[in-house]
Amino acid sequence: MGLNTNRVEDGSGSGHAQQETTTVSILVPSETMGPQELHGVCLPPQKTTFQKLRHKLSEIFFPDDPLHRFKNQTNVNKILFALHFVFPVFQWAPNYNLTLLRSDVVSGLTIASLAIPQGISYAKLANLPPVIGLYSSFVPPLIYAVLGSSKHLAVGPVSIASLVMGTMLNDAVSYSLNPVLYLKLAFTATFFAGLCQASLGFLRLGFIIDFLSKATLVGFMAGAAIIVSMQQLKGLLGIVNFTSKMQIIPVLSSVIEQRDEWSWHAIVMGFSSLACLLTTRQIGLRKPKLFWVSAAAPLTSVILSTVLVAVFKLHDVATIGQLKKGLNPSSANMLYFHGEFLAIAVKTGAVTGLLSLTEGIAVGRTFASLKNYQVDGNKEMIAIGVMNMAGSCSSCYVTTGSFSRSAVNENAGGQTAMSNIIMALTVLVTLLFLMPLFRYTPDLILAAIIVTAVIGLIDYQSAINLWKVDKLDFLACLSSFFGVLFVSVPVGLTIAVGISVFKILLHVTRPNTGVLGNIPGTEIYQDLDRYREAQRVPSFVILGVEAPIYFANATYLQERILRWLREEDDWIAANNGSTLKCVIIDMTAVTAMDTSGISMVKELKKMLEKRSLQLVLANPVGSVMEKLHKSNSLESFGSNGLYRTVGEAVADISSSWKAQL
Amino acid sequence: MGLNTNRVEDGSGSGHAQQETTTVSILVPSETMGPQELHGVCLPPQKTTFQKLRHKLSEIFFPDDPLHRFKNQTNVNKILFALHFVFPVFQWAPNYNLTLLRSDVVSGLTIASLAIPQGISYAKLANLPPVIGLYSSFVPPLIYAVLGSSKHLAVGPVSIASLVMGTMLNDAVSYSLNPVLYLKLAFTATFFAGLCQASLGFLRLGFIIDFLSKATLVGFMAGAAIIVSMQQLKGLLGIVNFTSKMQIIPVLSSVIEQRDEWSWHAIVMGFSSLACLLTTRQIGLRKPKLFWVSAAAPLTSVILSTVLVAVFKLHDVATIGQLKKGLNPSSANMLYFHGEFLAIAVKTGAVTGLLSLTEGIAVGRTFASLKNYQVDGNKEMIAIGVMNMAGSCSSCYVTTGSFSRSAVNENAGGQTAMSNIIMALTVLVTLLFLMPLFRYTPDLILAAIIVTAVIGLIDYQSAINLWKVDKLDFLACLSSFFGVLFVSVPVGLTIAVGISVFKILLHVTRPNTGVLGNIPGTEIYQDLDRYREAQRVPSFVILGVEAPIYFANATYLQERILRWLREEDDWIAANNGSTLKCVIIDMTAVTAMDTSGISMVKELKKMLEKRSLQLVLANPVGSVMEKLHKSNSLESFGSNGLYRTVGEAVADISSSWKAQL
To answer: Please, what sign has the CA dihedral across residues B120, B123, B127, B128?
Structure first.
């Protein structure tokens, strides 16, 4: 076994503190234990409670060690790195050149042609005046260009956040009845969304958005897309009186009940432009080189339909109407930090903030991995948060990185955040000079643009994949889908997160266990059920436990292990095997243990001893060893109860039996 | 490596369904994959979704395979086993003999001498008339004797459940103002407690009580004990007007504010009997053979103090007063299934039911493991639940197995559940003939009995141990302690359970990772930090991941793995090592993976490929393999990306590099 060299030859019992100094870190586990051998299994290096806490906290909050670039640097470099760190613009601006500018101008103009009609449309989705959507496509992109670290993120209003904000605020206040209060709440919610995003990034709590798993989001987005599309029937059918509720049932019944309001002009124009937009979208998807067809389609259809309405004077088609020219007015005085509606503003801010953050980070990461650069999640959160807080003071509502526009940006050859600046400048020109042109733009074209945009959020392929690969993920997906469709956005999301967490707990509460066998000719021990070539080792039961041992599963594991022994006894009786003498538990996957787990192991050992069975732990991980040590349980295992691998345990114990004969 | 014999020589690509028939279960993972070798790593046997669901459900609900005794038996035996299963009394009654009876009579009389004064005291703790405590020591023990499987459990009212019931009901209704409604609610709560307990057992959801971990209970019991003891100052000091609140602050201020009501007679008698009881308790603890001293003390002190009050006519000492003779009256007509207080009754029932169940099961398990027999948790739950439902119809309130009385029972030599029957018969005699004797029993002696009983619940040794072994367990303990002390029982318990669950999630969200090295002379790979003798393998980074890869940690793990690579590069640069060529992830402890985990692994592989690094997975468990297969990711790993152990991977890849040279 080649083990002897590793054994403790030192009987001084001088404690484990020696690990810091000796090169061969064999363990003499405690003063009371004396010169016993643990077959090479050793404790982790001793650390104080404070050191452990510091290590744990740094793993929780700084897993990527963000300051590693500052190590061993001159002061000048440190300042330079700090500038780069806080303002990523300094990373790319010094090397910026004309070639890059040319690509960025093309892509910037392209995404502007998308951003203008989408901005107007999404603002309507949030029950806000159309111009707010344009304001939101001007200030936030400029701020992001300075602070953001993604090169491809196209910033502006997005459908999901707009929808959620519209729904949640509309439950409290109606825009048509009290427009000023509604606006105040929208800006306040935006402020809190930004605050929440920036704090998550600053406090390095970004992992919270990981709890909105992909499965949850697939279901959520599909549900939201369906509701939004149904709601757009208002515009597409020309209905005037429409429900403001966001569940599928009131929306559909509203469509049917208001049949007498359906307008044939609207229907023909609406559905034909929808058909055009969907066709161009398909073209863009099928042939990425023709992306400009789908990118240019919304603006083109806006222009065409506006001309049509203006020329033929179609008075029964609802239009946007007069829009005020000019730059973003300040809205800092409209933030609302007291009174009865503050709670709803904070709640709306938190939900839209988390959702838009999830979208922004996901989009940023997707393109970063596509183009092989890194995006720092926590820094991105700060950038998005600051941009929203600044936005809330300049008449913008919640913005983030849009998936569709970022894809167009990347396709159109965008190279740096400069494309966001070009886009913002285009929006600026629009705001200053082109606003009167939107007067006759019909609502139905905005509805068609929204439907085209959100239909891409229905990712049924992913849902099918979830079903195939992981049924519980699929369940989380379904529940967020139906939750959003029939109840509400927060309820749907809460249920889905609950199911995801339940899944983790279920895995811990009922972990896999199995009997292992030896694969002939190797020292490998694998599950007998899975590896048909694996063979039982006579007189041993080798059990694999595939989870940490916690209060939540200690009782289960004890019962389950006893059942394995009972079944093994039955097997031996049926096959005339040799009687059991030793139970080895492979602890490799027991990655942690709490006090209940320790008690369980102690009690199991006692129970087995009463049945004249030896209990051996193979390969306990560092933290488990440490807890066994601290709870003074190592003594009872010490001499022949701990091995580094199952193979060593089997070999050593078998040979000791042979020696006894 | 002795591996060649295990390789796939079969190029038919006939799919993994062959595992059911071939003896050598080497994998040909999918039709699309062709004759590639996976170095012996194989998929688990193929199962349908239904089979997997059945397996999972049977692991969740029937981990102990309760029906295994029915397999391969004749019908007569099956009926016999079924009788034994439902009524454990049939297991021991046929072999019952005079020797056993003698021990059970002694122990039954001993616990009766404890149960009578404790029953009266605990009923007062629940704000109920004293006689209810005696009723509750008569019917439930008889039912438990028939249905219960523990031989040592002494059944009756217990302090914690009494306290919680008294607190929670008193918040809604005051016994002194509306005694009938209060009684109705108490019986209804008892009914729901029993229903909840029996359903948990019947639906085999017993694992829910595991979530009240030992750490939580240590804190909770200590907090409850302190509050209860403080409350008993009412009796010990002779205070008449006392707060009915259960937080420490109102109780203490009540003690101080009512100073003018302190009665010197009460104080002298109360504290001297308390001193006696505590002394006898200490004697019982120190010398288990003298257990009868502490067992007889409560009844003796009741008799002595009653005689004292009766003889000296101490009118300023509050006494129990006239008690009605007679058996339990029916209370089925007092159950209350409608109206405004139903919710509070159900809630009280659920909380007291869960708490008393936890105590009963824990006590049963403790003595079963001490005496080396097994107690079936789910069956015990049904027994305790039925006994409480029956109790609620016969004027009893919540009962369970009491820790203190069960210990006395075991010490006094109780052998079977017959000791419960003897105890019940003694209580019956008391109820029928001895009730007038309690007329002059002073309240203060009941207070002293309660304090003596609950003081044993303060287990500071365990708390110190929790601090030493597991800081987060200690935090859960502290929070339930302070939660109970300063807020309320449900809040304290909820926070503690929350912390326990958070601990599980934290371990999953931020799992341990580490670089492994080879221990010279072996094929063992262990953490470099922990095993000083472990050595880096040139050109490889071997990473151990100690948790399932889920949505909650996929991003973290990706960042962390990249950071390990960066640090490894730094180390190589500093030590002139050979450049990295291969990253091996030891997946032994990655016991599960969801769709986010799969995406992460795929993406990591792509990122490493761009850096010309090979990604290898060593020893993926069955469920992970299955998911990789179903998500069509195996192909990308197939040829040289999967090995059964790190050792095999290193050996095989190194030799392939040598062959290339």
So the answer is: negative
